[in-house]
UniProtKB/TrEMBL annotation:
Protein's recorded name: YdbS-like PH domain-containing protein
Superkingdom of origin: Bacteria
Segments traversing the membrane: 72-90, 203-225, 250-275, 391-408, 414-431
Keywords: Membrane, Transmembrane, Transmembrane helix
Natural source organism: Kutzneria albida DSM 43870
Length: 522
């Protein structure tokens, strides 16, 4: 009995002395809160929509015109757009988690969009004039997929400038950001790669932008005149001047029209250059990001990860070549540049001295010299005949159409005679296009050049080429030529080496990426 009692007494302390864990269970992770857009957005959207109906309002209010049913429908549509803008602000919410950027909005149709943070390529901050009036801006977060259009962008319209810079720092400088809600907007030391010189406005008249500006302005004026039902005969003295010009000799009318057009295009080009590229600057941040800023009334700030840079492109329009000018753009993986470098945000330097464009390109690529300045291999003589024939046939086609139009009294008889001048000019353009053709391998870059009215020289990194496409049209096959297309996930998505011999086309593709075509070569 005593042994049993002692045995029991020895086991009890072991049970009572075991530590008991009274630590409460860890709470669930706190959910990251959703943010709303700035309420001043309710001022921006009405301002944008009211601009569109200024002609209708002038006609209905100031000119005391009742308006037709199309104008009333237009006012109704604008009213619906205003209501949509209000609903968008009421329902829009966004947040940034460790994995993705999320945006949801909509009342009747609820839409939710999430962009993985590891797929974000660019952060584009723009501030149009209506944004700047209230101190806001628009942030576009893009993954840069070429096949998804605008739907691939996540747009936050509108946020404050401080919030926009916080989002840019947070989304592109991920390693330095402690958490989505604690990211600071510390500005690291930047290295300036390019800054616009105001003396470069002398290159503006030699770009083709002035023609586009004048065309857009003419269309706007015609739209306003149509909406206000303005009669051209009521222009008074201006109408009399036009009548005197049109009743004069044809050569004098043409001369005056060309001179007036040149003056208007020159003024429009200079104004457009100043408005678009005021305080243009390209900087490199220590985190490996290129930061592009420019704009006077509408400002823009684009940030691009340098590790996505696949090459550069130097463009020279024919007038710019006459004054030794050019532009430089970046070929960036995941950044669309098919409809213009300004829209895509890849412009590294606007119209400027050509040597300055090459200097900026070399700095952007971390190279001692710009690869686009490397000596190029010429193309076969058959390529020259193709260039001249295509240019001449185009000029002959225009002349024939003008002649047929004069036969049916649709155009004056002198028009087709004036079009004959295009034929010798087309021969010169064809020869110039041939002289511009060229390609080479410069170190780690595939360099190709083509074009006359707009000559484009592209230096594409070899490791940026993801595939090849070799094709020959019927006329190319008869001439023994072929076109090599380097496909890439950057820039335009495809860059051509046009009209080379079949053997040289295969050799070029194999030399650029030998591991890709070796298995197909005999």
């Amino acid at each position: 009995m005593s042994e049993l009692a002692s045995e029991q007494s020895s086991t009890v302390p072991e049970l009572t002395q075991r530590p008991v864990d009274f630590t409460p269970a860890p709470p669930p992770p706190e959910e990251i809160p959703w943010h709303r857009l700035n309420p001043l957005m309710l001022v921006i959207h009405p301002a944008k929509e009211l601009i569109r109906i200024v002609p209708v309002l002038v006609g209905l209010v100031l000119l005391n015109r009742s308006g037709n049913w199309q104008q009333w429908i237009g006012l109704g549509v604008v009213g619906l757009l205003l209501v949509r803008g209000v609903l968008h602000w009421i329902t829009a919410r966004y947040r940034i988690t460790e994995e993705q950027v999320e945006l949801k909005h909509g009342l009747l149709i609820r839409k939710s969009r999430a962009v993985p943070r590891d797929r974000i390529r660019t952060v584009d901050i723009t501030a149009e004039w209506q944004h700047r009036l209230v101190g806001l801006c628009k942030v576009k977060v893009g993954t840069g997929r070429h096949d998804s259009g605008k739907g691939d962008e996540l747009v936050l319209d509108a946020v404050t400038k401080t919030e926009a810079e916080r989002l840019r720092t947070l989304l592109l400088h991920r390693p330095s950001a402690p958490s989505p809600e604690q990211a600071t907007v510390d500005s690291p030391q930047e290295t300036v790669l390019a800054a616009v010189d105001r003396r470069w406005t002398r290159f503006a008249p030699f770009t083709l932008s002035g023609v586009a500006i004048v065309g857009a302005l003419g269309g706007t004026i015609f739209h306003f005149a149509h909406e206000l039902h303005l009669d051209g005969g009521a222009l008074g003295p201006l109408r009399q001047v036009l009548d005197q010009v049109l009743t004069g000799p044809v050569w004098l009318t043409v001369l005056i029209a060309v001179a007036a057009l040149l003056v208007v295009v020159t003024i429009a080009s200079v104004l457009g250059y100043v408005l678009s590229y005021w305080n243009f600057q390209v900087t490199r941040e220590p985190s490996g990001t290129l930061h592009i800023r420019h704009g006077l009334i509408n400002t823009r700030s684009v940030s691009i990860e340098e590790k996505r840079l696949r090459g550069v492109e130097v463009k020279e329009t024919l007038p710019l070549r006459l004054v030794q000018g050019g532009r430089c753009s970046a070929v960036v993986s995941g950044l669309r540049t098919g409809r213009g470098d300004e829209r895509g945000g890849a412009l590294l330097l606007p119209a400027a001295p050509l040597e300055r464009a090459h200097e900026v390109a070399a700095k952007a690529l971390h190279e001692a010299e710009d690869p686009t300045t490397a000596p190029l291999r010429g193309h076969p003589r058959a390529a020259r005949m193709r260039r001249v024939n295509r240019a001449v046939m185009s000029a002959v086609g225009i002349t024939v159409l003008a002649w047929l139009a004069s036969l049916v009294n649709f155009a004056p008889d002198w028009l087709w005679k004036a079009a004959l001048v295009l034929i010798p000019l087309s021969v010169l353009i064809g020869l110039d296009r041939f002289r511009s053709l060229g390609h080479t391998l410069a170190g780690e870059y595939l360099v190709t050049r083509s074009g006359s009215l707009v000559r484009e020289t592209v230096a594409l990194r070899r490791d940026g080429v993801i595939g090849w496409r070799l094709h020959a049209s019927f006329f190319q096959r008869r001439a023994g030529l072929m076109t090599v297309v380097a496909t890439t996930a950057a820039g335009k998505g495809a860059y051509h080496v046009t009209d080379v011999s079949a053997a040289e086309a295969v050799a070029l593709a194999d030399e650029t990426m030998p591991e890709l075509l070796t298995q197909f070569l005999e």
